[in-house]
TrEMBL record:
Residues 1-74 form the DNA replication/recombination mediator RecO N-terminal domain. The keyword DNA repair applies. This is DNA recombination protein RecO. It holds the Pfam family RecO_N. Keywords: DNA damage, DNA recombination, DNA repair. It comes from Pelagerythrobacter marinus. The lineage of its organism: Bacteria, Pseudomonadati, Pseudomonadota, Alphaproteobacteria, Sphingomonadales. InterPro entries: DNA_rep/recomb_RecO_N, NA-bd_OB-fold, RecO. It comes from the Bacteria.
Length: 200
């Protein structure tokens, strides 16, 4: 396998003393995984942050081998990880993507939607500016993977969007996240609690 493409980092797991196993979303090849030597070092640690846009170069001798990956940072989400609400939203959408999608299946609509919702989270003045996109992204994942999921109304207010967000939770847990490693829903619960504070 050889691949060079723009990608969005959606997960990074330590491997051994210094390496990282990265999972990244690409437009043409879907979710891909690679071994990043030195990924926990000073130079690469800021690059392998979930949400970051990178140029990924994957190389493997066979289809069964985990590819070696080289990453070049294109856009960092690091500046927003110090803000509780954007950090929770970035953590949730990347964890959901990394956990729900099968590897090496192209989902160009999901790739473009993920890029758009991450941009909105980082650049909208407040969560009111990106919550609709996040709810629409969850609905798109459900729809693309065959479990329905209607997009939110175009001009939905905060309260209806929070209700739709709450309603998506059981569907995501039942259909997309059942029997998956890790408590991915904990990231969503944290986000839900932080969004709920916007009511006050």
């Amino acid at each position: 396998m050889q691949l060079t493409a723009p990608a969005i980092v959606v997960a990074a797991r330590p491997h051994g003393e210094t390496a990282v196993i990265v999972r990244a979303m690409t437009e043409g090849h879907g979710l891909v995984a690679g071994y990043v030597a030195g990924g926990r070092g000073r130079a690469l640690r800021p690059v392998v942050i979930p949400g970051n846009v990178v140029e990924i170069d994957l190389r493997a001798r066979s289809e069964s081998q985990l590819p070696f990956a080289r990453l070049e940072l294109v856009e960092s989400r690091g500046p927003w990880l110090g803000e509780p609400l954007p950090a929770a939203a970035i953590g949730w959408v990347t964890a959901l993507t990394a956990t729900a999608l099968p590897e090496r299946n192209a989902y160009p609509n999901i790739y473009r939607a993920l890029a758009a919702v991450l941009d909105a989270i980082c650049h909208a003045p407040s969560a009111r500016g990106w919550l609709q996109g996040l709810v629409a992204y969850e609905a798109l994942l459900l729809r693309e993977l065959g479990y329905g999921g209607a997009p939110p109304p175009a001009e939905a207010g905060l309260e209806p969007l929070l209700e739709i967000f709450a309603a998506h939770g059981p569907l995501l847990e039942r259909y997309l996240l059942a029997d998956r490693r890790g408590d991915v829903m904990a990231a969503r619960t944290m986000l839900h609690e932080r969004l709920g504070r916007m009511r006050s």
